[in-house]
Amino acid sequence: MNKKLFGVSLAAVMLLSVGLLGACQKDSAGPYVMPEWSGRPNEDNSVAVHDPSIFYDEASSTYYAFGSHFAVASSTDLLTWEQEVGDNNWQALYGTAKYGELNWPATLGESVDLVNPQSDITTTWAPDVEEYNGKYYMYYSLTKAFGSRESVIGRVEADSPLGPYVNNKIIVSSVGTPAGGPNCIDPELFYDKDGGLWMVYGSSFGGLYIKELYNSGDNWGLPKEGGINDFGKLLWSGSNNQEGPFIFYNEKTEYYYMMVSYGDLNNSYNMRVARSENPNGPFKDITGADVANATGQKGGNKIAGNYIIGDANGYAAIGHNSVLTKDGEYFVVAHARRQAGTGVTAGHSLYVFQLFFNEDGWPVMNPNRYAGESIGTGVTMENVADTYDVVLHTEGTTADFVQSKEYAFAADGTVTSGSENVGTWTLSGDYYVTITLTGGDWQGTYKGVVAPGWDMYVENAASAYSTFSMTAVSDTGRPLWAVGTTAKT
């Protein structure tokens, strides 16, 4: 549903908690649902959205993914997507009126004058669209040049999600401010559980910040206090080469989750998460460390990094994600690149993955692209037992690809690699899994869920099948994925 409803109307459709972090993911968790063949390819290269921010428009029952350089894609089911606007085609959203020698949209004239961008629309980043009282508001960011911290976050408005957008207002600016402050890019708005409205933003220049906004009336969506150089509160340290913050609330776990992307947007992006009992922090990772003090490449539980499953080309730079909540289920919407020889492809394909929560309330992501599956009851050791392609993601940030290993998960709870016993696994509740591995760098205990999925790692999409996956995280924040190698029902 629309992100703005996280703490308000969505609370009515999400399962009421009985006080346990490990409560069911959905209302009256029914039997798990395996996805069926949808006719889709394993990946959708026809849709490219860099830094996608998901928005559900209730008026048209359509999902929109808005991205950097104003690319937009749409879907009615989160399964098939259509490119609405390509990169740099600002006229589709702003009309044809131009401003300045570099041909910026006339609407953005005040922001252009303040930032003085050195190139065209390619220095606009990661917009977020929200709806309030029938108006659509786009929060965008504009930077002087790639790698600069001279930036502004502004807001424009329209009568439809695809514009035309007008009436520019500057929200916050890092132009001309002292070094060490934030970079005003990548805005994302969210409602807290009590209906308060917030904006989280920033990058590795100074860290990730949060500002409270008015949640009603003529000032809706504008800062509650301070001028355009009032940055708000620091949530995540700026020494980690990170960006793309997104915060959402889970009523059952009673935590706010903050997801960010570390690394190089070209080849080493990796998603991280920390959580807090309050919308404005402090946010802590699974070790209890406050990410406001994170250093180096530490901070946050890792959700996904670069990897190879089986013989498929590797998946790279998965990141800059947003999160959607729909009927009690959670979905990660992110861009990804693919392995190409010793490097990666140049595009930013749009992917949607289901996000689950383990029995300790930590999010873990389905390794397979969303295909209509549902987590639920009926999972047993016998029907989950299989040979799996297992990936243990790296702890840090790297452009290298982790190659999967083939492990056999037997119904008696043993895990073997060839003839060697390398660990144990067990199920609890409806779908929770605990995997304990004993060998080398993989040694540790990983807690997560068993989830249905549609195998996206086969070479030919026509030969894909439904199977089980396991997705879990260690007590140090290291994610483990396992994808079944045989068809399941």
Describe what is shown at a glance:
The protein has 489 residues and is mainly β. It has helices spanning 10-13, 91-94, 109-115, 381-384; strands at 53-57, 62-66, 72-75, 82-85, 98-99, 104-105, 124-132, 135-143, 151-158, 166-173, 188-191, 197-203, 207-213, 233-236, 242-250, 255-262, 270-276, 301-304, 307-308, 315-326, 329-340, 343-344, 349-357, 363-369, 386-392, 402-403, 405-409, 414-417, 420-428, 432-437, 444-454, 466-474, 479-484.
| Percent strand | 35-45%
Mean of residue pLDDT? Answer: 91
Number of H/I helices: 4
Low-confidence stretches: 1-28
CATH-assigned homologous superfamily of the largest domain:
Glycosyl hydrolase domain, family 43
The CATH topology assignment of the largest domain is Tachylectin-2, Chain A
Q: At the first level of CATH, what is the class of the largest domain?
A: Mainly Beta
Instruction: Please state the structural category.
Output: mainly beta
- Please tell me what the overall shape is: globular
From the alpha-carbon coordinates, what is the Rg to the nearest angstrom? 22 Å
Oligomer: single chain
Helical coverage, percent range: under 10%
Q: In which order are the strands of the major sheet placed?
A: 25-27-28-29-30-31-32-33
User: Main sheet, how many strands, which sense, barrel?
Assistant: 8 strands, antiparallel, barrel
Looking at the overall shape, the CATH architecture of the largest domain is 5 Propeller
Q: Give the N-to-C terminal Cα separation.
A: 29 Å
Number of domains: 2
Tell me the total number of β-strands. Answer: 33
